[in-house]
Amino acid sequence: RLLELNPKPEFAQTARKVIQNCETDLNDEIQIAYDERNPFVICNKSFGPIYRGSELTHCSYCKAAYLPQFKGIVCEGCTMGLVGGEGTGPCETDADGKFLS
Hints:
Elements: H1 9-24, E1 40-42, E2 49-51, E3 57-58, E4 65-66
Antiparallel strand pairs: 1-2, 3-4
């Protein structure tokens, strides 16, 4: 996409090198064990799959998914919420401070 925007020559050259490198080295850097046919979300701490129907917990602020073993830690995504804690998350208010739906 970057090349379609006609970037400066030095950016275009770097982008072409990245594309060429990606096309010549077609192996996965990290092997991830998961079932691609079973819907899942990614744990924000372990980066492992949490399959549909499995127990999970969320950040009280950004609602990122975590495995239950990480309950009680500070969220690694937003660094503001508590995993498994109670909270409303981000809320939008008008100029008078009233919550918008």
